[in-house]
Design a protein that fits this description.
single chain, alpha/beta, Rossmann fold, seven-stranded parallel sheet, 43% helix, globular
Length: 246
């Protein structure tokens, strides 16, 4: 493996969507990080990349299927050799697809697990290999309430999110002594997105009273986790609006 000699600090956001992932990339870019963002389609990343660059930051978009080992290995090698060391990895793929267990198919169940759990393993493993050699780094996983308890109709999603939480726990215990902070963020509640606005208008109406999560406020907590001193690291952080029942 080769390593870039650049002085750039890189945040790699896997699953940089239009809300949470994009907001996290913007927040780190504000602090001087080069934001490397990925989705399966690079075209969908261009508005985010343009917005970061227009605001004085640096960003690069990459098309990468996070479920494909060879693509993940190539992505990490390209960033490390051409842009800079990945100081922070944010894994932010969701795959929240409801379905009755009586109607769930093996193909869809497996695909949801691949997206929300297996791809987290692939990306975290490759980045962790680099971080260990430098003896520093932060790996942050976006989780959900489904990672703590499975709801009716969400067996596949709950299984995947339980798995990613277990992965994060194991990695935190193994890598923490090597000065790599691994944390799991439980996002519990509706987020201010076009999807919520268009499909759940009653829920979206709560935005006026701070009843849904603001992606920028979520991102602020990821920045907070990265900056924690190692004598007071958080492993699991819950984020939910005041109105969300739990």
């Amino acid at each position: 493996m080769t390593t870039a000699t650049h002085n750039n600090k890189v945040v790699l956001v896997v699953g940089a969507g239009d809300s949470t992932g994009g907001a996290i990339a913007k927040r780190f870019a504000e602090e001087g990080f080069v934001a490397c963002v990925t989705r399966r389609s690079a075209d969908k990343l261009q508005p985010l990349v343009d917005a970061i660059n227009a605001n004085g930051g640096q960003a690069h978009g990459f098309a990468c299927d996070a479920r494909k080992e060879e693509e993940v290995i190539a992505l990490v090698e390209q960033i490390e050799s051409q842009i800079g060391p990945i100081e922070v990895l944010v894994f932010n793929i969701g795959a929240n697809v409801p379905c009755s267990i009586l109607e769930e198919t093996a193909r869809k169940y497996f695909k949801i697990w691949e997206m929300a759990c297996f791809s987290g393993f692939l990306n975290a493993r490759e980045v962790a290999k680099r971080m260990v050699t430098r003896q520093r780094g932060t790996i942050l996983f976006t989780g959900a309430t489904a990672g703590l308890r499975g709801a009716a109709g969400f067996a596949a999603f709950a299984g995947a999110k339980h798995g990613i939480r277990a992965l994060a726990q194991s990695m935190a215990r193994e890598l923490g002594p090597l000065n790599i902070h691994v944390a799991h963020v439980v996002v519990d509640g509706a987020i201010d997105t076009d999807f919520i606005r268009d499909n759940f208008p009653e829920k979206y109406a709560l935005k006026a009273e701070d009843g849904i999560l603001d992606p920028a406020h979520i991102a602020e907590n990821y920045w907070f986790l990265h900056n924690q001193p190692c004598d007071a690291w958080t492993f699991e952080l819950d984020l939910r609006p005041w109105s969300e029942r739990w």
